[in-house]
Amino acid sequence: MKLTIVIPCYNELKTIDAIIEAVRNSPYPDKEIIVVDDCSKDGTREKLKTEIEGSGRVEKVIYHDYNQGKGAALRTGFKHATGDIVIVQDADLEYDPNEYSRMVEPILADKADVVFGSRFAGADAHRVLYFWHRVGNSFLTLLSNMFTNLDLTDMETCYKAFRREIIQSITIEESRFGFEPEITAKISKRKGIRIFEVGISYYGRTYDEGKKIGWKDGFRALYCIVKYNTLS
Predict the structure, then answer these.
(1) Which helix (H) or strand (E) holds 21?
(2) GO terms for molecular function, please (predicted)?
(3) What is the topology classification, in CATH, of domain 3-231?
(4) Which helix (H) or strand (E) holds 33?
């Protein structure tokens, strides 16, 4: 069983080394690490080119010629994946690669085809931060569930694991953070796909520490929930 970990990154100079090492040291020895740099401007791109690409620490580094967004970076990474299971890993250290075993166990047991890692299910540690972010996340998850008839607790989570043939068969249209509601809607429409959710820890960061998602992305998520559940 081979894992492909896709790491989209944009201006993550402070954390890119640490996340790559964390992924390399995570469970399951047979791993393919694909980093997609979305035209970083803070030195991340140069670090990838001079210190990481060709070092043997990752299998592929792919560079976008201009900034397109997280969804676009994932779209690029998924195309190059060759593992049996594909996992999304943000580059900001908010999610712990040591928990990959939780994500892939339902798939390995042939109980699931897609697994969501929920920050709000279970008793794992998570950093206490923004109240209104939690309210917004809960509202978007609830609205998404109303359309999809799924019972997720955390639709907007980064951690998602897919059988490779499933994620590569889906056309991803959203280039920014609209990826989350889009992929949830499209998976929910596929007959026979088994979706599981597992509890994970979460070490969120503040805007001063580099958090990028904002209120505009919340409105886009609303639009995507309606669009991909009713118009697509």
Answers:
(1) helix 16-24
(2) transferase activity
(3) Spore Coat Polysaccharide Biosynthesis Protein SpsA; Chain A (3.90.550)
(4) strand 31-37
